[in-house]
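Quick log. Single chain, no ligands specified.
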Amino acid sequence: MSKLKYIVNRYKFFLILCIFLILLSYFEKDLAFNILSISNDSFIQMIEVIPPIMLLLGLLDEWISRESIMKYMGPDSSIVGIILSIGLAAFAAGPMYAAFPFTEVLLKKGVKFSNIIIFMNAWCVIKISTLLFEISALGFEFTLFRLLINLPGVIIMGYLIEYLINKEFIIKKDIP
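-> predicted structure:
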C-alpha cells in the first residue's frame, strides 16, 4: 500500500492531468485530440534529444576531471571561465531543457555559479545554430546588433544573480 501511495504522490500532477484530459475528451474531443497530438510530438522530441545528451554528460563527467574544470571555470576563474561558459553553450545543440543536466554536472564539478548562469543564458541566446538561422531569416545586421546587446547582458546577469543569491544555496553540501 505504501508503494502505491508513493507512486500516486510522485505522479499526482500527471494523474490529475490525465483525469482532466479524459473529462475534456468527453466534452471537447477535438481539443483533447490536439492536446494528445502536441504531447506526443513533445515526447518524441525529448526521446530524440535526451539519450545523446546523457551520453555526452557521462563522457564529460568521466573524461574531464574536477581539477581541470575548477582551474578554468571554478571560483578563481576570470575571463577564461566566461569564455568557456559561452563557448560550451554556443556550440551546444538542443532545446533549453537539455541544458539542465549539463548544469548539474557543472555544479558537481565546482564551476563558479556566475559561469553556470552565463552558460544557461548563452544556451538560450548565443547558440551558433540559432544565430545561423537568425541571420538567414532576419539578416546579418539585426543578428549582430542583437548579439552585441545580449552578450554583455548574459555576462552581467551571471554576476548579478551570483551576487544576489544566498551563497549557502549555491554551494550545496549534498552534491558529491
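The chain has ten helices and no strands.
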